[in-house]
Fold:
Amino acid sequence: MRVKDIDKHERRTHTLRTTHKILPFVIAGVVVAALLACTYAVLRNSDVFSIQEVHVEGVNHLTSSDMAALMRVNAHDNLLTVDTHGITQRLERNSWIERAQVSCIFPHTLRVSVKERSMAAVVELVSASGQTKKLWAIARDKTWLMPLPQATSDAGKRTNPQVFVDASTALRITHVALGVQGEIGKKCSDASIVNALDIASSLTTDLAQRIVEVRACTNDETSLVLDNGVEVAFGQATHMRDKERVVLEVLAQYEGKVSYINVRNPSTPTWRAIQ
Structure:
């Protein structure tokens, strides 16, 4: 027998021995995988991990009916079959919900954690004809939240009461150009409304708490109405610290004596005394 044939025979023998050693483990792995697959299939179609509780956190402006419609958890769903990704996507398409997280807590709980947007203001939108007026809630990140129905209407009765509570104390943005429209879930693109929100969110002193209305005619003509009735011609959301400082100084010096303050140019402010 040649040396080459001997080497070939030895390699074949070694391969056979190795195969015999590994084969039991391979068979065992296949059996275990098959058992696991069968077990999973059985559990998917059983009520062992049925959803018996849905625990929701962070929701203040949506009703239980709203949440049920968004989540669409069916009676036959269990923790192995429920589409948590799909639920998350549907929740985050709602204008009130900034971020959602859905997770399974075995054996029977579906956990839904939500971070809502907060209402920054109520905007008065008037139709292009000037004939109709609609109130819209808008968020701090400039997302249109929803048109506000009358609380006593059918739509109002289906709305979470917290929405009306927030709207009653929210900043009011008025005098917006005719024809501006809100769209649920979309960012506001109207420059005057964006400017009004930027002003309100950028004030850092007690002046921010005293604003009850922002008249957003145009950027340059934006004015603030304070809780004492004083109107402040503010203009664009620029030179905020200087404008804020001047308004506070004039109010401190002439509290109860002025009806109008103009700080569009904070270096040359003007004010008008009460007649």
